[in-house]
Design goal:
This protein is of the alpha+beta class. It folds into two domains: 42 residues, no CATH class; 162 residues, Yope Regulator, Chain: A (2-Layer Sandwich). The protein is 53% helix and 21% strand. It contains seven helices and six strands. Strands 1-2-3-4-6-5 form a six-stranded antiparallel sheet. Strand 3 and strand 4 form a beta hairpin. Helix 1 packs across helix 2 and helix 3 packs across helix 6.
Length: 214
């Protein structure tokens, strides 16, 4: 197959995907293209590339023995599943989603606990309250953070700090990965003897580590 035929094939595949997206949203193909271009310009102007951020999280969290990682179809989010070895085999699922509002880059990180064990859900609720308190006490330079905490669910949304933005998309992805890993490891440590006492020290060490923070 020559170069021209390759190009025509790629255009055909792109046109097919655009028609499918338009059909799913009950929209015109031109509207889908315009939306994609506008989104691209917003990310370009913000100095970050959402696809590179998500792919960096996927790469950094790809530890088959510990996590199961997948990227959403729209490419705006990545999910990380973390199996737990407790009663009735619960599972934690994290999601990081990037969006832009004007020139502001925002990141929403959520954690969902799938479990029918009441004690596991109770410990998760205790931990998320503790986590919010620790972030309020120790975390600086990240601006206003909005939290949602419910039975088996935790989410926090904030703008991506200027220091992370200026470091680039891959660094932003690394910061998100570090956040998810810290949350996951500290929640699991809560189950060990003396876990509650060690969580604050571990969090303080994470803050002092010099890593970029979301």
């Amino acid at each position: 197959m020559n170069g021209n035929e390759d190009i025509y094939r790629i255009f055909d595949e792109m046109a097919y995907e655009l028609r499918m997206m338009a059909a799913e949203r009950n929209a015109a193909v031109l509207d889908i293209v315009r939306e994609a271009l506008n989104e691209f310009m917003r990310f370009k102007n913000a100095g970050l590339n959402y696809n590179e951020i998500i792919r960096a999280v996927e790469k950094n969290m790809s530890e088959p023995e510990r996590y199961f990682v997948s990227v959403s179809q729209d490419g705006y989010a990545v999910s990380v599943k973390s199996p737990l070895r407790y009663t009735r085999r619960p599972e934690l699922k994290y999601e990081a989603r990037i969006k832009h509002t004007g020139a502001v880059s925002e990141c929403k990180i959520s954690a969902s606990l799938r479990s029918i064990d009441v004690d596991t859900l109770r410990v998760f609720s205790v931990f998320t309250d503790m986590w919010i308190e620790l972030e309020t006490r120790y975390l600086t330079g990240c601006g206003r953070i909005a939290y949602i905490s419910d039975a088996g669910y935790f989410a926090r949304s904030s703008r991506i700090p200027d220091g992370v933005r200026s470091a680039g998309s891959e660094s932003a992805g690394a910061a998100i990965s570090d956040y998810i890993r810290a949350f996951d490891e500290m929640f699991k440590s809560l189950w060990r003897p003396g876990g509650a006492q060690s969580v604050e020290k571990t969090y303080a060490d994470y803050i002092k580590s010099g890593k970029l923070r979301i």
